[in-house]
Amino acid sequence: MPPDLPPPSGSPPPPGPRLLSGDELERSSVVANNTMNRERGLVGVNSYARELGQDPLAHLASRPAAPSWLDLCSGEGRALREAAGALPADAVLTGVDLVGPLVPRPSPPTLEEVVASVDHWAPARTYDLVTCVHGLHYVGDQLGLLARAASWLAPDGLLLAHFDPDSVRWADGSAAGRAAVSALRAAGFDYSARHHRLTLRGGRSLALPFRYIGADPAAGPNYTGQPAVGSHYETRA
Ligand SMILES: C[S@@+](CC[C@H](N)C(=O)[O-])C[C@H]1O[C@@H](n2cnc3c(N)ncnc32)[C@H](O)[C@@H]1O
After folding, report:
1. Where are the beta strands (DSSP E) in the chain?
2. Are strands 68-72 and 92-97 parallel, antiparallel or unpaired?
3. pLDDT one-digit tens code per residue, 91-130
4. For the region Disordered, what residue ranges are annotated (predicted)?
5. Residue located nearest, by CA, to atom 17 of ligand 1
6. Distance of CA 7 to CAs 14, 19, 152, 179, Å?
7. 138 C-alpha vs ligand 1 centroid, how far in Å?
8. Distance of CA 59 from the midpoint of ligand 1 (Å)
9. What is the Cβ-side half-sphere exposure of residue 10, based on CA atoms within 13 angstroms?
10. What's this model's pTM, rounded to 2 decimal places?
């Protein structure tokens, strides 16, 4: 069987890894890993501009008014803070992270720092820019988050997220990454395998043909060299 097809229906499922719920995953050592790089700034060596291949401010600068940026899995929020200093007073900057900044600092008035899981949080507005810089690697339902994030984009907004197809698996642990990338491309995402980066231009409502069944925190290191989560799915008609 080619590696990217789901197991045949009707056959008993072969044993796969033990899969965790969202709450269990968030308590696991792979997510609560204090050696992660959570301190990327806006530009420079350890930065969003470098990881995303473009300076987030360049996209926001083209907005006629009130530029808005939602950063999912924002870590210390350094990139947002640096952006706040360069954007007008009507900018809207939102960072969402499970842990939030470990070093508490007063927030600039344009920045809202939300401590929450992206599994449960949803914004009350749309954004010109939505980013997730090396955050999906720790999220169980990555495809569900990408589908929700697509709906949080403004009509001419831009979504940029790092994504590792190898982390997407069927229930039995076999590879589902090619199927996931095909479905994402069919929904309008571009995927650069070289940069492990998804890009979506323009907000939309979409449903991917995957049903999330749980996360494997023992999937091992991904392309970044850091331990990452395996996201397991069944097909959804
Ligand atoms: C590798 S760090 C990247 C942080 C930041 N984007 C950067 O590049 O500096 C991954 C971040 O994802 C956060 N994270 C993991 N699971 C999450 C979840 N379910 N909801 C929100 N944040 C999560 C972690 O707390 C961590 O801050």
Report:
1. 68-72, 92-97, 111-115, 127-132, 153-162, 168-170, 190-192, 197-201, 210-216, 230-235
2. parallel
3. 999 999 999 888 888 889 999 999 999 999 999 999 999 9
4. 1-22
5. 98
6. 9, 17, 33, 13
7. 7
8. 22
9. 0
10. 0.94
Examine the pLDDT at 236 and tell me if it is beyond 80: yes
CA distance 7 to 10: 9
pLDDT of res. 34? 78
What percent of the chain shows pLDDT beyond 90?
81
Nearest Cα residue to atom 10 of ligand 1: 135
All domains of the chain in start order, with CATH: 22-27+65-235 (3.40.50)
Tokens of 218: 């023992």
CA distance 81 to 62: 19
- Contact by Cβ (8 Å): 216, 18: yes
Which token pair is 190?
């571009």
Around ligand 1, the residues with Cβ closer than 6 Å are 26, 31, 36-40, 73-75, 96-99, 117-119, 133-135, 138-139
Q: How far apart are CA 7 and CA 168, in angstroms?
A: 14
Angle of helix 142-151 versus helix 177-186 axis, rounded to 10: 10
- Whole-angstrom distance, CA of residue 229 vs CA of residue 24: 12
How far is Cα 230 from Cα 36, in angstroms, rounded to an integer? 17
Residue 149: in which H helix or E strand, if any?
Answer: helix 142-151
Q: Which residues contact 235 (CB under 8 A, 6 or more apart)?
A: 6, 209, 210, 211
